[in-house]
Amino acid sequence: MKTVATTAAALLLLVAGAASPASSAPPAPDAPCAGKIHPNPSFERGATGWTAGPRVVVLGDETRPAHTGRAYATFAGLDVTRTDLLRTTVTVPADCSLTVRFWVRTTTTETTRGDYLNVGLAVTGIPPKTRFSLAFDGGAQWRQYSMSSGTAAAERTATVSFLGSEMAGNGVTAFDVDDVTFDLS
User: Fold this and answer.
1) Which terminus in the chain has less CB density within 10 A, N or C?
2) CA-CA distance, 102 to 104, in Å (whole number)?
3) Is-contact 180 152, C-beta < 8 A?
């Protein structure tokens, strides 16, 4: 009889424990404002995930290494009048903000402003805006920049674009871009 009473008490505790709010709550879902939202932020897989002009994504070497890894995007550097475009679009979930960080290095023989790299962020519902216009005096060392989208109640798309422009006869300028990260918060 004592065994039946002990078993009944254990069963009662098990049933009472299963009915408690802490143990019956479903597991918490993954946070919607987290996770990797771009397949190739460092160009290690070439132009995968990006729309790129010809010769934009290159492999670094000992004289011009990438910020991290081996690959980076490069613009201009030919002393010809031309433009190069690199862009990508990501989805920003509702109630999330997007922060884009990227690294830029500038090498140049230019002495006056004629070559530039415009960096833009266009988000659904917000007019497109050039966030940075970088010129020849940006520096030969890698420098980090960032831009944010703000938060909205609805899901949006965000397009990040890099437009390099070079004028012939004014010196040679190359803008290198690497490690473009897309962080949700």
Assistant:
1) N
2) 7
3) no
CA 109 vs CA 104, 143, 171, 172, 174: distances in Å: 17, 19, 5, 5, 9
Are 138 and 75 a contacting pair, CB within 8 Å?
Answer: no
* Interval 54-108: pLDDT, tens: 778 888 888 889 999 999 999 878 888 888 999 999 999 999 999 999 999 999 8
Contact yes or no for 102/119 (Cβ under 8 A): yes
Integer Cα distance of 5 and 110 in angstroms: 91
> For residue 6, which phi and psi values (nearest 5 degrees)?
-65, -40
Rounded to an integer, what distance in angstroms lies between the CA atom of residue 86 and that of residue 57? 9
Residue type, 42: S
Residue 93, C-beta contacts closer than 8 angstroms, at least 6 positions apart = 32, 33, 155, 184
Q: Is the pLDDT of residue 178 over 90?
A: yes
How many other C-beta atoms can be found within 10 angstroms of the C-beta atom of residue 78? 14
